Amino acid sequence: MDPHTARLFAEQLARWTESHIHLGRSPLKKVEVFSSLLTSAGELSPPLIFWINRDSFMAAGVVLFPSGHTHDANDSGIHCAEALGLRHFISWAPKEVVIWEVQSGGCQKRKTLTLSGHGDEGEEAFRETLLLLLEEVKMLSVTGAIAPADLSPFYLVNLCLGAITSAFPFIAEQYLVTREAIRLGADPAALTTLAYHKATLTLLRLLALISYDRLPPSVQPEGLDRATIYAMETLPDILQQAMKPQSTEQPLPLEAATRFHHFFRRMLQLPQRKNHDFLTRVLQPLLAKDAPQLGGFPLPSENKPSSDTACLFIHPDGINKSADEEVMEVASQPILAYTALLRNFLHIPPAIAQGTSVLR
What we know:
Elements lengths: L2 H20 L7 E4 L3 E3 L2 E3 L3 E6 L4 E7 L5 H15 L3 E5 L3 E8 L2 E9 L8 H21 L9 H24 L2 H5 L4 H24 L9 H11 L5 H7 L10 H15 L7 H15 L20 E4 L12 E4 L2 H14 L6 E3 L5
Parallel strand pairs: 5-6, 9-10, 10-11
Antiparallel strand pairs: 1-4, 2-3, 4-5, 6-7, 7-8
Helix pairs in contact: 1-3, 4-6, 4-9, 4-10, 6-7, 6-9, 6-11, 7-9, 8-11, 10-11
């Protein structure tokens, strides 16, 4: 199936799924087409993801269209399932629709829905097959989720990315309508950058506070931003300095706060939230994904200075993990927050200086 046909077919399946959801006969609440996932094999975009609760990143199933190489398709299915916190994935091929169960890094067939394979199925036949599949997904939504303690770091990576992505449009709108727009000459690019920095910093502040158990579970969306800023005073000094609000930062709008509150509540359900080693494996791919948009550039891989020489990194996309080397950093504030949090979790000495400009 060529990419154009695959998209048209996925969009049709999604429309039928939405109609089924609107009838109230399914635990599903949403379906997405070719949504991006960050997995242990890189970025993948499965044709369909069925959601029970998108804001809390609780999926019911994922559908892939195999291209003829079953092994490659199954590998992609395993990686997508891992990133979504599922024990199963679905392959929709010309002759059959197969539900695969992920087991010990491999997979085996759980159930097969047969198609004619002659390419002569009408619209109604495809729709009936989809409805049968949705009934199977309904049962798997109860039995097919991975236990919270067994979730992969990439599940949390995508939970984090989902929070930023869903909250960002509301933050961007907030920046466009404030007096900050006038002060910056209403430069849309500058405002968009500030809005994305606000979204990223909000996420990192929440991760830090959750990992140290510093934010009360009773906090509500309308008070989340204020409670976060206040609770930061209980964090280690180096994290406070890296994450403190700047003069250009605007309050979090309620719509965005609601998205981050979903993230906060979901994180409270996960036992890994206080495991700094585990959270390091979340932050590293998250920063690698986010750094280009935050102005980061790859760290040099050679010509490292001697350990008795302080090293200045300008707009790095990560950290040097050497505990012996003194480091100074100049970067956007979200990158400085990322690197400070990573060093804290890895028990590496903090940078001896951080700044957003070499002139300060």
